[in-house]
UniProtKB/TrEMBL annotation:
Its EC number is 1.3.1.72. Belongs to the FAD-binding oxidoreductase/transferase type 4 family. Residues 60-234 form the FAD-binding PCMH-type domain. The lineage of its organism: Eukaryota, Metazoa, Chordata, Craniata, Vertebrata. It holds the Pfam family FAD_binding_4. The keyword Membrane applies. Catalyzes the reduction of the delta-24 double bond of sterol intermediates during cholesterol biosynthesis. In addition to its cholesterol-synthesizing activity, can protect cells from oxidative stress by reducing caspase 3 activity during apoptosis induced by oxidative stress. Also protects against amyloid-beta peptide-induced apoptosis. This is Delta(24)-sterol reductase. It is an enzyme of class 1 (oxidoreductase). It comes from Megalops atlanticus. It is a single-pass membrane protein. Keywords: Cholesterol metabolism, Endoplasmic reticulum, FAD, Flavoprotein, Golgi apparatus, Lipid biosynthesis, Lipid metabolism, Membrane, NADP, Oxidoreductase, Signal, Steroid metabolism, Sterol metabolism, Transmembrane, Transmembrane helix. Pathway: Steroid biosynthesis; cholesterol biosynthesis. The chain crosses the membrane at residues 32-52.
Length: 516
């Protein structure tokens, strides 16, 4: 009984302190307390619920039957909107805080919300080497199921909570993208409910204009209700080689060489300063050397980016064997390196062993509880951006990042961009190798201003025919936006499918200068 009274006393003192200081003060200045006491346990409950739900539904094979009914329900909602005169735009009814994007979509309050509760894996067809899924299936579900039966996605983006719908309507990338391209390039079919309530299926050969226009459209051409995605045989391990490199010239040259080498199934770089980086290459294998196995996904293991940094500090190359699923979600526990700003002691061994099994907190819950004050602080003093630039401009791009925002580590991920129709394609008629430069953290430049500094980056990216991921804050005006992205096919489809009265233009949906 005494321990219980002690606990009640501590909780009471904490609540009194919160009352005296004010909830806003605690959430802003001591956010780790709120995260550790409330958000971590809630995140565990969320994960357990969705894992058990997906497992039961798939085992009972009930998902396909329910899927058809759910599609009909979406069609009914769209037709009701049309019968009522279509007075406002439509959007999905999923709350904005549930998305992984840090952007808060205010349009949800003014648009007609179409409820889409579709989060099931429908079918795994190993003969066709395709998995058919609903749009809210996330990467954690996909790896848990596919890896257990010996398959995987060719491109499996990092964070557990990223959904198929978000990766198609936005974009997705992984360290295998130098071979397979972006997430959209491993998709073979989309099923959508259009503005008139009709259901269509599109592929590269059937309704191909729609198939190529859907990626990056952010749900402004129709409601995605299912997707078919390529799968490939999986192996038990990833044989990973870590190579520290110094000097910006050497980093860019080495990274480009490894990215062009198709024998590397995975290529990734973590850049810790302007002239220090670790370049990682990997291949899948079924055989591992026992003394080199590192199960990095265990909750008590050091955060991956800190583990990688050790090779740089010790100036040594090394080889490790990592379980495939652990590799896919190597940055999940620390949300790349964002969690160090929320729980500063999160990588401490004591914390990892006692509480690491609850990490990370759900990004959706962090958004839900951040409040307007924290949101403004993050907007003005925090950067979360992914810029996609041609590999030949990598060096000047990193220098631009260094001068304009000075955020480290930088995430470097190569990808091949096929010459295909749509909003994003190379400048010429041939496939081209690009690099995604991801900056996540607090800028260290004294002159940082969120709008001005980001616009500087955006200007550089436009000039080298690069692209900005649309999950982040975008400050371009409309003309600049359509200079960066090719809207030819997109606008044609908007006209043909009568989307202009049903959905906002993608620019109006995602750009800060267009939102109110």
């Amino acid at each position: 009984m005494d321990p219980l009274l002690y606990l009640v006393g501590l909780v009471s003192l904490f609540l009194v302190w919160v009352k005296v200081k004010g909830l806003d003060y605690v959430i802003i200045h001591q956010r780790w307390i709120f995260v550790c006491l409330f958000l971590l346990p809630l995140s565990v409950i969320f994960d357990v619920y969705y894992y058990l739900r997906a497992w039961i539904i798939f085992k009972m094979c009930s998902a396909p039957k329910q899927h058809d009914q759910r599609v009909r329900d979406i069609q009914r909602q769209v037709r009701e909107w049309k019968d009522e005169g279509g007075k406002t735009y439509m959007c999905t009814g999923r709350p904005g805080w549930l998305t992984v994007s840090l952007r808060v979509g205010k349009y949800k309050k003014t648009h007609k919300n179409i409820m889409i509760n579709m989060m099931d894996i429908l079918e795994v067809d190993t003969k066709r080497q395709v998995v058919r899924v609903e749009p809210l299936v996330n990467m954690g579900q996909v790896t848990a199921l596919l890896n257990s039966i010996g398959w995987t996605l060719p491109v499996l983006p990092e964070l557990d909570d990223l959904t198929v719908g978000g990766l198609i309507m936005g974009t997705g990338i992984e360290s295998s993208s130098h071979i397979y391209g972006l997430f959209q390039h491993i998709c073979v079919a989309y099923e959508l409910v259009l503005a008139d309530g009709s259901l269509v299926r599109c592929t590269a050969k059937e309704k191909s204009d729609l198939f190529y226009a859907v990626p990056w459209s952010c749900g402004t051409l129709g409601f995605l209700v299912a997707a078919e995605i390529r799968i490939i045989p999986a192996r038990a391990w990833v044989k990973m080689r870590y190579e520290p490199v110094r000097g910006l010239d050497a980093i860019c040259q080495r990274f480009a060489e490894e990215s062009a080498n198709k024998e590397n199934q995975f290529v990734e770089g973590l850049q810790y300063s302007l002239d220090e980086a670790v370049i990682m290459t990997g291949v899948m294998t079924d055989v591992a050397e026992p003394d080199k196995i590192n199960r990095i996904g265990h909750y008590y293991k050091p955060w991956f980016f800190k583990h990688v940094e050790n090779f740089l500090r010790e100036n040594r190359s090394a080889v490790e064997y990592i379980p495939l699923r652990h590799y896919y979600h190597r940055h999940t526990r620390s949300i790349f390196w964002e969690l160090q700003d929320i729980i500063p002691f999160g990588n401490n061994p004591f914390f990892r062993y006692l509480f690491g099994w609850m990490v990370p907190p759900k990004i959706s819950l962090l958004k839900l509880t951040q409040g307007e004050t924290i949101r403004r602080l993050y907007e003005q003093h925090h950067v979360v951006q992914d810029m996609l630039v041609p590999m030949k401009h990598m060096q000047s791009a990193i220098s631009c990042f260094h001068n304009d925002i000075h955020v480290y580590p930088l995430w470097l991920c190569p990808f091949v961009l096929p010459s295909q129709p749509g909003m994003v394609h190379p400048k010429g008629d041939e496939d081209e190798l690009y690099v995604d430069i991801g900056a996540y953290g607090e800028p260290k430049v004294k002159h940082f201003q969120a709008r001005a500094s980001t616009r500087q980056l955006e200007k550089f990216v436009r000039e080298v025919h690069g692209f900005q991921m649309l999950y982040a804050d975008v400050y371009m005006d409309r003309q600049e936006f359509w200079e960066m992205f090719d809207g030819t096919l997109y606008h044609k489809l908007r006209e043909e499918l009568e989307c202009k009265a049903a959905f906002p233009e993608v620019y109006d949906k995602i750009c800060k200068s267009a939102r109110h």
